[in-house]
Amino acid sequence: MASTTPVDYSDIQGLVRFGYGKLTEASFLLLSIRNVTAARAWLTGAPISNAVQLEEAPSTALQVAFTREGLHALQLPEEVLAGFSAEFLSGMAGEESRSRRLGDVGPNSPEKWTWGAPGKVPDLLVLVYARDQMLEGFMRTIQGPQWDAAFNVIDVLPTSNLDGVEPFGFTDGLSQPKVDWERRRKIHGDELEYGNLTALGEFLLGYSNEYGKYTDRPLLQINDPFSASLPAAEDLPEMRDLGRNGTYLVLRQLKQDVRGFWRFADMQANSDPEMRRKLAESLVGRTQKGDPLVALSTRRIGGVDPTEVSQNQFTYEGDSNGLLCPFGAHIRRANPRNADLPPGITGVLSRLTHTLGFGEANFRDDVIASTRFHRLLRRGREYGPGLSVEDAIKKDAPETDDHGIHFITLSANISRQFEFVQSSWMMSTKFGGLTEESDPLLGNREPVQGCPVTDIFSLPQKNGLRERVAGLPQFVTVQGGAYFFLPGIRALRYLCSFGD
Amino acid sequence: MTPQSSFMVVAPIAAQRLADLRKVLADMNRSPGVVDPGNALIPFERFDRLHFARIVILDDLTRNDIKVYGLQPETYPLYLAFLGDFDGDYDGFMSDVVKASGSGLRQMFSCCEDFHPNSDLLAWMKARNRTPDTIYVNWIGRTTRQVREEASLYDGLQSYVQTNQATLASMQSTQVHDALKRFVAGELKAGRLTLTPPEPTPLVWQVRNLLHLVGVPIVLLLASPFLLLYAPFFAFQLRRRERSDPEIAPCVEPGHADRLAVLEDHDVTNQFSAFGTIKPGLFRRWTLVFFLWAINYTTLHIYNRGRLARVNTIHFARWVFLDNKRRLFFASNYDGSLDSYMDDFINKVAFGLNLVFSNGIGYPTTNWLILDGAKDEQKFKYYIRRHELATEVWYNAHPGLTALDLQRNTLIREGLQKETMTSDEVQQWLRLF
Predict the structure, then answer these.
(1) Chain A closest CA to B34's CA: distance in Å?
(2) Which of A9, A47, B363, B392 could form a disulfide with B25 if both were Cys (CB 3.0 to 4.6 A apart)?
(3) Per the domain annotation, does A274 fall within a domain?
């Protein structure tokens, strides 16, 4: 086991540690490099915000991340580039099989995206944050003299501040993993309880992950002249670590049909406001205010802060029939909150029994396990104006507004974290023993081979039979997306050191 | 009950015919990874006892790995492997296959070294059949007919429940049970549904199964004094090897990964084929023989009702030795994407994988044979992908149905056919819908 070295917050981009909630204005710029020398000059001089905790939140923040195309444009040597993960190198829309897994088919197909499809992949993403009314000024400041020479702007993704509520009207961002910055977490084999404290190496390269291993990333020979400023790799001290303090950033532009969502709920509820609210909450798995539909756990869940107990200290152990929160509800799919072994282990013998696959009486027992390897640190922002439920269901209202989320997630392993959750849990029509249904919010309702119907939502009922809500329309459409590398700050300097 | 059987024809490919063979195989597909089930060469859909079939070119991409032991790789021919899992007896099934697709099979096998146009096809295929060393069947006795009938039953019940949602919701659970039974009885009578009762279990199979069930523990019991005596030597030899066996698990070459990815995720079920060389020497070879034999006992007698230990996403799987037990072939049919399959393996049954695959060259280092190994997640995934072969043709008789779907449908049928159930049992049964 490698000896751990302290976390250097000044080398980490701030977004990994902070959501910049007080910086209510934000804009995400998708750029291609027009002139590499000018781009390097801009990047070298840019005031990138780090993760050092300040007394008071800053008034502005700036972050940068690169696609494979961008690293290539910066003339990063091919052998270094090859050290990044396969999915990053291939890109979000680079392979049809990946698109099939991610549910990016039909109306979600990359060829319909406004950006991110092959040929429309940006080189870099610049994330700009500022306090109220300060974004415009900050944008002018950072653009500086080289900006126009350096970049072409492919797209500007504006964001809006809906006070922590996503466009459908639900409080968002409640269940975040607690990042183990102090590296206190000791991992010894299977975990018997769901916990929220998650190894730093799940969200930052160069640190040990939930398996106690170091996720692959580009490592450089110590004699590489450009790499002198990079930290040594913790697991291989004779190498320099280009990944350390960096991570992968997944960005997806998700357009939300707010009117479609509430009109569907309204129609199902025969316009009864109470029924409509209940159905919508079942689809999400939380009340609009963000309270879980299941009871809070009496057991303390490690890594749930005292301030968030009321909305985050729960598992589905007491709701094994899905009566309180349907199995297919959005948040139950996105984080099934289970441990490595099924519940009910009391000693060595029952542990052995369960490990060998005995003792699960019911059909759905132990179908899903080990959520700790599939956690997402989310940093997305809403876009478009807010729309109340009453306005959303109004007939003849103009439908010109664009609502949605620029979904952002940070993870050290795109494939095991984002892609796994997106494909095996959200888009899968077979999640947890269900069939004919995918995520009620994100599902694309496209048929899969041998399974023509995928637009169902099941509400388990007391007497046993589920209520089957049929004909869910597609509520969320993918408009664009890409995989980025969000480098550590020294790594960013390294990336700008090639060429002339 | 009709037990399941398997076949696997393995024959060396004539080097100059490889391109022709690839063309023949491609002609069976609509597009890469998507078979035409009624294709003119081997019309898979016409074999109504067949669950899964595949055709793979056994090209050992990692044959040079043995050089880390200072040995020169053997020169093996490329093999063509045609394998499948089906219901009932082997002889009858093979005759059916030859009868219905004789000319297609001849065209395919004519690309093999020792096939002659006037060969007796059936005898030729049987002579090249390899019996699996371990076979896993998700649910022994569940036939394709049963799968189809139960899927129709589920669909029929679903639409009945959907149309009568309001009425059923107001009933007690036992009343719902009765109502569903009445509905199904009516459908059966009208011929809209069929639920064929199981065939009697073949006597030969029963006897053989019983002998195996009792025989293996007896053999183990008799051998136990020797095994116990040998245990310390085994431990010593194992630990010495675990400390020195090299790992070969580099990041997968992108071209190889892309070629495999094209074939995947067209259906909710996927295929996986892998091939590799066993570590040199008798120790690893016989360790592997022993554990495959032991695992085969558990799959036949214990894990035959929907779960392989904690994993419930595998339909059929097999391990087969080739080349005098110097190389091992693995094939499985599983639900979900390869990454989720590997995650399930790592998190739920790493010990089982380690027992077998750690005897292959380059596997991530194990500790006491069952610990670590696959828990080195990334290396394990690279290792698996690196040994994976492109499954050129793959047929699934029931696309869109996961192993869990099949289990649910069977449980629903079983519940329908029960005379009495307590209201708790009925409720649990209704929750399957």
Answers:
(1) 10
(2) B392
(3) no
CA A198-A202-A206 angle, 5° bins: 125
B interface test, pick of A356, A465, A468 with most B CB neighbours within 10 Å? A465
Q: How confident is the model at residue A186 (pLDDT cuts 50, 70, 90)?
A: confident
Residue B305 has pLDDT above 60, yes or no: yes
Within-domain flag for A388:
no
The region of weakest confidence among B162-176, B204-218, B324-338 is: B162-176
d(CA B254, CA A70): 19
Q: For chain A, how many structural domains are there in total?
A: 1
pLDDT tens readout for residues B227-263: 999 999 999 999 999 999 999 999 999 899 999 999 9
pLDDT at B89: 96
Considering the domain architecture, whether residues B418 and B344 belong to the same structural domain is answered as no
In a domain? residue A444: no
B14 and B108 share a domain? Answer: yes
Same-domain check for residues B317 and B206: yes
- pLDDT above 90 (res A129): yes
How many angstroms separate the CA atoms of B427 and B421, rounded? 10
A293, A424 contact by CB (below 8 A): no
- pLDDT surpasses 60 at A1: no
Each residue of A359-401: pLDDT tens digit? 777 888 899 999 999 999 999 999 999 999 999 998 877 777 8
| Full domain range(s) for residue A216 | 9-251+481-495
Smallest CA–CA distance, residue B37 to chain A, in Å, is 13
CB contact under 8 A, B308 and A355: no
Report chain B residues whose CB lies below 8 A from the CB of A213: 376-378
In this structure, chain A runs to a length of: 500
Note the residue count of chain B: 433
Based on the domain organization, do B413 and B375 belong to the same domain?
A: no
Number of domains chain B is built from:
2
Evaluate if residue A74 carries a pLDDT over 80: yes
Flag whether pLDDT at B148 surpasses 90: yes
Residue A321 to residue A333: CA distance in whole angstroms:
15
Q: Which domain covers residue B151, as residue numbers?
A: 144-197+402-430
Question: Do residues A82 and A220 lie in contact, with contact meaning Cβ atoms separated by under 8 Å?
Answer: no
Which candidate from A357, A363, A468 shows the least CB-CB separation from B432? A363
**How close, in Å, is residue B256 to chain A by CA atoms?**
12
